[in-house]
Amino acid sequence: MTIDSMTQAQVQEKANIPAEIEEPGIRKWWEYFTFNTDHKVIGIQYLVSTFIFYCIGGVMADLVRTELRTPEVDFVTPEVYNSLFTLHATIMIFLWIVPAGAGFTNYVLPLMIGAKDMAFPRLNALAFWIIPPAGLMLIASLVVGDAPDAGWTSYPPLSLVTGQVGEGIWIMSVLLLGTSSILGAINFIVTLLKMRAPGIGFHQLPLFCWAAFATSALVLLSTPVLAAGLILLAFDLFAGTTFFNPTGGGDPVVYQHMFWFYSHPAVYIMILPFFGVISEVIPVHSRKPIFGYKAIAYSSLAISFLGLIVWAHHMFTSGIPGWLRMFFMITTMIIAVPTGIKIFSWLGTLWGGKLHLERPALLFAIGFVGTFVIGGISGVMLAAVPFDIHVHDTYFVVAHLHYVLFGGSVLGIYAAFYHWFPKMTGRMLNEFWGQVHFAFTIIGLNMAFLPMHKLGMMGMNRRVAQYDPQFTFLNEICTYGAYILAVSTFPFIINVIWSWMYGAKAGNNPWSALTLEWMTASPPAFENFDKPPVLATGPYDYGLENAREGVPLSDAEPVLSAGTNSVLRANPDEPYPAIAAETDER
């Protein structure tokens, strides 16, 4: 077969045959409970442990929603209610979405750039093993008798009148989790900058790598500020200082600035990795080149930069000057521009593509785009000072948050699971049960959170267990939606466990994808590649006019794809001839 008669996937795979280790890296189950330095083991450790914490946080959410099903306080006490929603929010952010993004980055980033491992394997393992004890500490604060109940923001002086032990455990847990994020971010940045295979420049990187780089930079710049604020808060609690206590001359608004300087960038820390996931899933499963590669790549960097100058839009009611309100209103609205660029590019990629709608990865990716747009629109509304003041501390804000972080990040996590599960395990997930999982998730998501917009506009305050009876009907809908969301996890859990043990063999490249993680065995060999892999085509060159999708590559019709974005191969000793010089017209 000649070069001109090959599909791009055939070109990519043939170029990497000598660079591939045929023996898959199958691990013993007990290795996942050890201090292992293999980035693939660490990635799975992240994903499994964070999913367990997600289930725990979900149980807390359902307990909160059960209390809110009726206007009276009739299920848990107000104090327990406050502690439950405080820990629910903390767990979902610091023990689920943020480390889940780190888990996928750990697993696929070295594979995507042709590296054998992360730059600092032991530091990588340490970053993970900080998480389980920190999570257990956080949950333990519920049983010490004075669990934190000032909200996940832990605003002083509210936090200064709650139980000090529970609050101290909360602070220590978040500090440890922040340390884990910082260690991971350092590793990701150094790995990306220093360990790419020869010939792989930044414009040949998969878009997930750009998203990982932008996320890591944001972590390094913002997380230390949160750590400083929490340390000062701990001094106020235990050492009698008054950094934030107004009774001693302190200023609680300073804490808000320090907290939100991290916690609004944290929204982008939670969503940027899954922007990258969607940029990987949509081209593969719609068989289309990505629309606007450079626009998507640089918009990730723009979001990372702008995310650092929007924090005070959470503080429009805190008494900050009017001119400062205007500045943060404008910057918050501007950040919608690079996000809109991504949405437009994803839709442009889907348009006219051969959509494999039977695949759960694509279903969750499309669901991500739709629900995240709702969250984005409500975010622009909240950026406007008059509207934000009107709905501040109401359920409109809760609805916005969940459409961004559940409709966005969590659907992105599921898309990533379905997309990379064959690479991680060598097995295929069952598509039917994946479709069932998607249907229940979308129905439950919209039932649980869409009515909250109306509740907020009607004036229902968040963070309270008791409310006016006029809000009862909508709260019942929200509660039943939360129950459906809880049920939706069961087909996913059963599917993952069953498929991991008995699922159909996946092969090395079940999606006929072009990025380098698919150019090695499934699961990948212990050191990924025995020599630097070859990038023979662009990562998204899917312009195959007559390819028979779903047919093994060896049986596919030979097709010449014109206009591919090929790059020079990195391995000059490989007998397969170079394809072309780089022609980046995107």
TrEMBL record:
Domain of life: Bacteria
Domain spans labelled Cytochrome oxidase subunit I profile: 24-536
SUPFAM superfamilies in the record: Cytochrome c oxidase subunit I-like
Example GO BP: respiratory electron transport chain
Alphabetical list of Pfam families matching this protein: COX1
MF (Gene Ontology): cytochrome-c oxidase activity; heme binding; metal ion binding
Membrane-crossing segments per the record: 46-64, 84-105, 126-148, 168-193, 205-238, 258-283, 295-314, 326-349, 361-385, 397-420, 432-452, 480-502
Membrane topology, as annotated: Multi-pass membrane protein
Protein's cellular compartments: Cell membrane; Membrane
NCBIfam families noted in UniProt: CtaD_CoxA
PANTHER family assigned: CYTOCHROME C OXIDASE SUBUNIT 1 (PTHR10422:SF18)
Family according to the record: Belongs to the heme-copper respiratory oxidase family.
Protein name: Cytochrome c oxidase subunit 1
Gene of this entry: ctaD
